[in-house]
Amino acid sequence: GTSVEGHVDPITGKPTIALDLTNCNKIEFPGGMLDDAMIRVEAGITRHTLNDHLRHTGMQFMVDPGADATIGGMVACGASGTTAVKYGTMRENILGVQCVLACEPEQGAVVANCGTRALKSSAGYDLTSLMTGSEGTLGVITHVTVKLHPIPSYVTAAVCCFDDLHSAAEAVMTIRQYGIPLERCELLDTTSVKAFQQYQKTGTTKYHQEHQQRDAKPTLFLEFTGASELAVQEQVKAAEAICSDDLGGSHFEFTSNEEERRELWKARHQLYYATLALRKGTTGAILTDACVPLSKFADLIAATAEHVRELNVVGPCFGHAGDGNFHCILPLVDHEDSEDYLQRVHSINETLIQRTLAAGGTCTGEHGVGSGKMKYL
What are the residue boundaries of the FAD-binding PCMH-type domain, all occurrences included (predicted)? Predict the structure, then answer.
């Protein structure tokens, strides 16, 4: 595919090369690397494949975008995911990269090894960070050394409903300000919850069955982890007090059951497909990727959801509330959407980006620039 921002779309009138590195999928175990909680992989391996290989070690690679992306692609576009609130983005989880630089033909192939296995270095330019998010403009990433983290011993997932989107977002900011550790923190608006309820592949656990019988309201999906059951319970109680007592949340429910937790996050990762199902005949969608300071998050996501409603466009707003990053999915139907409808869709995207930039944010928190966001740099 072309990725969500058209990263590999051909440039009109220019010779274009697209490289497929999916066969470059080896995992390397140089001596002592696992003891140092790191591993070196070829760029084409996917995160699911990597974590399957690591499961017996008790460690995992924790960056988790919705797609089963390749590690090299995640580096190239500076990806992140639902766990960024705790572990950071791809940028914080890379120790080094090997890449073939973009050079003139007469120079031949120039291979650059960026970074070291040390946890810190002040030796010159941070070339690893420079290559992260470069999207193929500086070279082709061939190998990556990534950080690993222990698989959490105790995990609890929770959900809480709110009467309005602003209150849900305020709850997240309060939880963060109080320093309550979060593994994941996702916010869904009313339209997202409706899509979640209607999509037949969302889940079959008791929670999903009960949730489908309720009126759709803005909802937080939370996950807490710790080294002891007591520590996790204290985190859950503190979050519940903020959500229910301080911000008026309702139906605060939590579970440590592994199947129910997996179903919850499976539903969150399938929200894109659930949204497409809201419009019959959907052939694609415009997907926004705003990221703002946490202090601006509540106002911006609420204003964006209201703008979508005002323009009578199908488009849920949801995102990684713990780090101020959210998306709108705006489904399109070829040969059916009027020119007026398309203009309204593009107006939502343009207005959101301008509001984001004015708030000190960025037009792309994790999807990258591609051809879709170049004009905003």
Answer: 1-151
**Exposed, middle or buried: residue 329 (CB in 10 Å: 0-12, 13-18, 19+)?**
buried
Mean pLDDT, range 307-333, rounded to an integer: 94
Q: Assess whether the region 27-150 and the region 154-266 belong to the same CATH fold.
A: no
CATH, range 27-150 = 3.30.465.10
Query: Can you give the residue ranges of every domain in the chain?
Result: 27-150, 154-266, 275-376
**pLDDT tens-digit profile of 258-288?**
999 998 888 888 899 999 999 988 988 999 9
- The region of weakest confidence among 102-111, 154-163, 327-336 is 102-111
Q: What's the rounded mean pLDDT across residues 97-115?
A: 89
With contact defined as beta carbons under 8 Å apart, do 36 and 120 qualify? no
Q: Which fold has domain 154-266?
A: Alpha-Beta Plaits (3.30.70)
Asked if the 275-376 domain carries CATH number 3.30.70.2740, the reply is yes
- Judged against a pLDDT cut of 80, whether residue 332 lies above it is answered with yes
